């Protein structure tokens, strides 16, 4: 699984999470005690930050065509990637989309991506 976002550990289990002031929102795909359905397949529980064992930001990084990227998502055999090398000529040569000033993204064939690893930031 390619992840890019907050994760929290509560009662020994890791959840997708989002900080919300002094609280942490925990998310899971199935119903559970104290979790409210926000949409089909998405349940949330809000807890005080003091009850959370660990909170971290996790991102998946990779190398594509010799350049550094962050993995933002995946679809079928493709990965949505964002270039982290910061060099416009490289981004242009790779035909990446200009997403924002200095931010270049594209779709990489998953089979061409190497060094796929998860990092806690």
Q: Can you put this structure into words, describing what you see?
A:
The protein is mainly beta and 121 residues long. The protein has 2 domains: 4-56, no CATH class; 58-120, no CATH class. Helix content is 5%, strand content 64%. It has 1 helix and 11 strands. Strands 1, 2, 3, 4, 5, 6, 7, 8, 9, 10 and 11 form an 11-stranded antiparallel beta sheet that branches. The model has no long low-confidence stretch (mean pLDDT 94).
Tally of extended strands?
11
Q: Which descriptor suits the 3D outline?
A: elongated
Using the CA coordinates, give the radius of gyration.
Answer: 17 Å
Strand residues, percent: over 45%
Give the proportion of residues in helices.
under 10%
Global structural class: mainly beta
How many structural domains in the coordinates?
2
Mean pLDDT: 94
Helix tally? 1
Q: First CA to last CA: what distance?
A: 17 Å
Write the element-wise H/E pattern from the N-terminal end onward: EEEEEEEEHEEE
Please mark out the parts with pLDDT under 50 across 5 or more consecutive residues, or reply none: none
User: Biggest sheet, open or closed, and with what strands and sense?
Assistant: 11 strands, antiparallel
Write the SSE topology.
Layout: E1 4-10, E2 13-20, E3 23-28, E4 36-39, E5 42-48, E6 54-64, E7 67-75, E8 78-83, H1 88-93, E9 97-100, E10 103-109, E11 113-120
Antiparallel strand pairs: 1-2, 1-6, 2-3, 3-5, 4-5, 6-7, 6-11, 7-8, 8-10, 9-10
């Amino acid at each position: 699984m390619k992840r890019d976002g907050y994760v929290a550990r509560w009662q020994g289990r890791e959840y997708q999470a989002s900080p919300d002031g002094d609280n942490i929102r925990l998310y899971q795909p199935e119903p559970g005690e104290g979790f409210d359905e926000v949409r089909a397949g998405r349940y949330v529980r809000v807890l005080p930050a003091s009850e959370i064992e660990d909170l971290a930001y996790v991102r998946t990084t990779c190398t594509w065509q010799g350049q550094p990227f962050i993995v933002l998502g995946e679809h079928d055999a493709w990965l949505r990637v964002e270039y982290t090398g910061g060099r416009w000529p490289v981004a242009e040569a790779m035909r990446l989309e200009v997403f924002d000033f200095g931010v270049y993204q594209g779709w990489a064939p998953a089979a061409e991506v190497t060094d796929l690893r998860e990092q806690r930031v």
